[in-house]
Design goal:
- By secondary structure, the chain is mostly beta strands.
- Helix content is 0%, strand content 20%.
- It contains no helices and 13 strands.
- The strands form 4 sheets. Strands 1-2-12-13 form a 4-stranded mixed beta sheet, with no helix packed on it.
- A hairpin with a 2-residue loop joins strand 8 and strand 9.
- It is globular and about 60 Å long.
């Protein structure tokens, strides 16, 4: 089984974060039905409109015309399961998820802000943006195996807040009509912090999956069997 997460949307200023890749082997019964949901790339471009997130959990984004920037939404996750539905609907049926790859985010302010890529046991973080007017720091973190990403907002570290749509949740990247970028979808989605947002995490934790590994762009690595992750610079 192989899955590729979708890339975050591209803007006039920046390239979206790359999607992750997950692979593993599984013995299947001829009567098994596999449900495959393929993540969609985030929406970018130079249009002054709200942008919905990529299919299967990409976070949505708005534009901030005051600062004249173009922003983009997050890419969706790709997953294979024994039960039908978007990844975000399977939180109570996690045993039915066979494998998944996280989607990337977008950081469209300028080329100096690196977008968080998706995949791996922890989704990629964006680089830090320092506001030129307030000198405050902003950074969006990737989703993990147990929760959506945290963030640095106005130089304050904020942990997961499920009441705030800017934070990633199970199967869903952070974002809203008030978010300036969209987090990547994944097992848990990346979180938005102004122009910055994180990527979604991948998943190879199903105990029936063997010879399994996740690859992601400039990401944290793991040697544990259920979260094995290899960082790569392949684009």
């Amino acid at each position: 089984l192989e899955t590729w997460g979708a890339e975050g949307g591209k803007t006039i200023n920046a390239t979206g974060g790359y999607g992750g890749y997950s692979v593993g082997y599984m013995n299947l019964n001829i009567k098994n039905t596999l449900y495959i949901n393929i993540g969609e790339s985030g929406i970018g471009g130079n249009t002054w409109v709200e942008k919905s997130g990529g299919y299967n959990g990409g976070g949505s984004a708005s534009i901030n015309s005051t600062l004249g920037s173009y922003n983009a939404s997050g890419g969706g996750a790709t997953h294979i399961a024994l039960k039908s539905g978007l990844l975000s609907t399977l939180e109570n049926n996690k045993n039915n998820i066979l494998i998944g790859a996280g989607g990337g985010n977008n950081s469209g302010y300028n080329l100096s802000i690196v977008a968080g890529s998706g995949g791996g046991y922890v989704g990629g973080n964006s680089s830090v943006r320092i506001s030129p007017s307030t000198s405050k720091q902003f950074q969006g973190f990737g989703g993990t195996q147990v929760s959506g990403g945290s963030r640095i907002y106005n130089s304050v570290t904020e942990v997961l807040d499920t009441t705030n749509p800017n934070f990633g949740t199970f199967g869903q990247g952070g974002g809203s009509t008030s978010a300036w970028s969209g987090g990547g979808g994944g097992l848990y989605g990346g979180t938005v912090s102004g122009y910055n947002s994180g990527g979604g995490s991948g998943y190879i934790g199903n105990i029936s999956l063997t010879n399994k590994v996740m690859y992601c762009y400039n990401c944290k690595e793991s040697t544990e069997e259920s979260t094995k992750t290899i960082s790569t610079t392949c684009e």
